[in-house]
Amino acid sequence: MPPNTQYDAVIADNKGSLLSINQLASRLRSADVIVIGEYHGHHGAHLLQSLLQSALYQQRPQQVLTMEQFTLDHQQELDRYLAGLSGESELIADAQAWSNYQASYRPLVEFSRSRNIPVIAANAPADTVRCVGRKGEVYLDSLELAERNQLPESPFIDTPAYRKKFFDALGKNHSPGTDARFENSYKAQLLRDNTMANQAIRAMQDYPGHQVIHLTGTFHAENHLGMVAVLEKKRPDLSVAVISPAFWQPGDDFQGLVEAHRRKGDFLYFLQPLPQEYTDNERHRNAIMEQFRQAADIACD
């Protein structure tokens, strides 16, 4: 029963009933928005997303794909590719696609392109997110009007539970007034979440009657927090379903896994753990510092 390879996923509802991809799609038929959380770069997560997109399409061909993996300032480049006006390498370069685009997201974009399914860039512009993380929410006041109007009118909507989750993940006190650096990091996270929720709402307005499939990192969606909480605050009339991953460690019991993770989503899928990235702590620290050095090259003045 455990997943046999990195490509396998064991799917269940949050009560512990096992499901096939087609059974999951059937359960999701009436949902307005389906949020599929992922572990970035996990083969099993991306295969599940692709298979589920196809299964959902068989039931409701009126579909829109919204993606955290593209930022909204690159929608034009994405549209050019979907219209056949540019090639894949041009898309990757011009839209600053993620490094794992070809291995992870190509199947979903190609499925959409071949069936004229709209693909919506859902994330906030990367430089804007970085600068909010550096200078705080006041940075948005310095944007040109056209840039600011792309973003949600209220870009920092959150919930106490999400704030606690975010600061717990950092090992920090989550009370208001904590260190400004971490407050700014939280505001940057909220900007991503609010922008993704806003783009899902816009997709439903632009394509009435379509089912929206949204791809995002699981932290942004599990427990109906993050972008899902914003979406449900703004549009409580919508039916939103969350599908969340969890790791099946050697020796785990299925029912125990479901019990431990049932609050993460309306449906769950269990994957083999990813390989350990580093055993050398110094190399790990150096890699993290290199990321910070790259981010420091962005001018926020």
UniProtKB/TrEMBL annotation:
Transmembrane segments: none annotated. CDD domains: ChanN-like. Residues 25-230 form the Haem-binding uptake Tiki superfamily ChaN domain. InterPro entries: Cofac_haem-bd_dom (IPR007314). It comes from the Bacteria. Gene3D superfamilies: 3.40.50.11550. Pfam families: Cofac_haem_bdg (PF04187). This is Ferric uptake regulator, CjrA. It comes from Marinobacter lipolyticus SM19. The lineage of its organism: Bacteria, Pseudomonadati, Pseudomonadota, Gammaproteobacteria, Pseudomonadales.
